Amino acid sequence: MKKTILAMSMALALAAVTACGGKGSKDAAGSTNGQDESPAMQLLNSVPFTADGLKSMIKTAEKESLTDVEYEALWMAYSKVNINEDENTLENTDELKAIRELFRSHKSPANASAIQEKLLTSTSPQVKGMAMSQFTSLFGVNQENVNKLLKALEGETNPFVLSHGIRAVSNELTKEGVAPFVFEQAKSASKFVRKEAAIAICNPWSEGVEGVKEAALPLLSDSDDDVRKCALTGVGRLNDESYVDELVKVLNDTTLYRLHSAAARGLYYMWYDYPFHKRTSKKAYDATVKYLSQKPRTKHVPDWTSVGELKNRSEDGIADWKARATYYSDAAWVKLMQDIALDPNAEWLGRSAAIDVIEKIGTKADLLKVQAGIKALSNDSKADMLLSSLEKKLQ
């Protein structure tokens, strides 16, 4: 699991898809801590800052190792790509695409790590932030590299840099110095920084870390929905039932329906724990059943994405989980799904998801019961679509 998370984190960081910060000036952002006259910057400035110019800058053949100067010049090129303050990513320009393609089509030089470490001191937020993204690996970040990152982040205020820095150590709260740093960033004025902090705090690698609960609780009521969603879902993976009441508060407030999917997913992690099926929680299970059972159902409640979670299960671990999760039975869950599928007031996508679950964990007779029930309804505007789906499942 940790390998997967870190590999995904590396890919996201390289693409800069969740970075944030203000728009940079191509001229001012080009400053790299007094290295403007370095061979790498001289090489970068020797060509037009266009996709074709960048490609002409690299003389090394594809699939061969870049020279140290070429490699550093490509990193410096990030300084000339503006940060989109609305999307909080590097602007997806032709130049950015060219930089990425040149990195992909060439090997890194033997001295790459040393160059990346040097770039941690860059005064360009783009360069510094992107350099930080390189300090993750499939095996986590060792304490030595954690120390380098934390030192580079001392006194940092730029949201783009902070976001990448937090992401680099997101699964390392057990390492010395990381938790205090992340906890402090959870109070940032930047919603983008708080979001990265929420992801770091509310993930399974942070389970048991002292101070996590105190840091997580304010995030559950954050003013920004994206931050709040990360926390609502993430606390479900901290193996702490005390968060159930906080999730239920959100689910009981129909005006917060836009957050219901995240809160419900947090509950599912506690009691169903797909794909691992390790954790169990009757308290979280009961809260989920209560949410899905409440009537009258509406277009927004229950959130349709919260209905179909059990259509996914890992066969290798489900039998052992069932033996421990004595509160659960397939038959009882099928009955709840049938009730949703037959409720014309419920969002039809949720009804369709309920049918998918029945197909997965129920029987043909269970599907036939739903089919007959829908045919008997006289006020169901979505009957034709649902019956068409059922007919395919019953073939």
Main attributes?
395 residues, mainly alpha, elongated, disordered N terminus, single chain, 1% strand, 21 helices
Task: Write up what this structure looks like.
The protein has 395 residues and is mainly alpha-helical. Helices cover 55% and strands 1% of the residues. It contains 21 helices and two strands. The protein has helices spanning 2-15, 39-45, 51-57, 68-77, 94-104, 112-119, 125-132, 143-153, 159-168, 178-185, 191-201, 212-219, 225-234, 244-251, 260-271, 282-293, 315-324, 330-341, 348-361, 364-376, 383-394, and strands spanning 83-84, 89-90. The chain has a two-stranded antiparallel sheet with strand order 1-2. Strand 1 (83-84) and strand 2 form a beta hairpin. Helix 3 packs parallel to helix 5, helix 4 (68-77) packs antiparallel against helix 5 and helix 15 packs antiparallel against helix 16. The longest helix has 14 residues, at 2-15.
**Biggest β-sheet, characterized?**
2 strands, antiparallel
Number of contiguous helices: 21
Radius of gyration: 25 Å
- The N- and C-terminal alpha carbons lie at a distance of 37 Å
Low-confidence segments, ≥5 residues, pLDDT <50?
A: 1-34
The residue-averaged pLDDT reads 91
Lateral arrangement of strands in the main beta sheet = 1-2
Order of helices and strands: HHHHEEHHHHHHHHHHHHHHHHH
Outline type:
elongated
The chain-level structural class is mainly alpha
The proportion of residues forming helix, as a percent range, comes to 40-55%
Note the beta-strand portion. under 5%
The tally of strands reads 2
